[in-house]
Amino acid sequence: MPASLPAVLGLAAGAFAGTNLDNAAVTVAMVATAPPDRDRRIAAGQVMGFAALVLGAIGMAALLFELSTRVIGLLGLVPLTLGIRGFIGLRHPESRARVARRAIGSGFFAAAVVTVAAGGDNLAVYIPLFRVARVRGTIAALLVFAVGEALLTIFVLRAGGHPRVRRAVTAVGVVTTPILYCAIGILVLIEAGTLTV
Fold first, then answer.
1. Angle CA 107–44–23, to nearest 5
2. CA separation for the pair 94, 145 (Å, rounded)
3. H helix runs in 34-89, sequence order
4. Degrees (nearest 5) of the Cα angle 184, 185, 190?
5. pTM, 2 dp
6. 128 pLDDT exceeds 90?
C-alpha cells in the first residue's frame, strides 16, 4: 500500500539522518587529514557515492529486486580492507601519515568508494522506502535527500576544514582513521547479518 506524501517526507528525513552519520564521520576525517586543495574533491566524491546508492535503491525498488541484507553486508569488506591497509601503512616509521593516507585514499574516488561501501544500511532502508513512495513520493524523498546531502556537505567541509579539527585529527588521525574504517566495515557486516551462520 502506498504511503502518504507527509509520511514519505518524514520517512525520507529519518532515513537520511539515520543512515548518513557514518558517512559524515568518515568524510570529515578524510577532509581533515587531506591537503586543503582536496577538500572539495573529497566532498564531491561523497556526494557521488551517495547519489549512486540512491539510484541503486530506486532501480532495485522499481524492479522489485530482492537483495539479501547478507549480500548487502559484503559491502562492509571495502572499508574494512581500507582500514587494514591503513594499519599496514603505519608499520613504516618514515612519514606514517603520508603512507597511511595513501593506503586509505584522500580524493574523489576514495570518498565515493567508501561512501558506497559503507552504504549497506542506506540500501536496506531506501529500497523499501522507494517501494511504497510511488512517483510523487519518490520525487519528494529525492528532494529531502538533496537538501540533506547539501547540508551534510557544508558540514563536512566546515568541520573537516576547521583548524582545530585538522590539528586534532592530524594528531591522532593516522591511527583513528583506520580504526574508524574497520569499525564501519565490521558494523555493516554485523548489522546485515553477513557474519551469522
1. 80
2. 42
3. 39-62, 69-73, 77-89
4. 95
5. 0.77
6. no
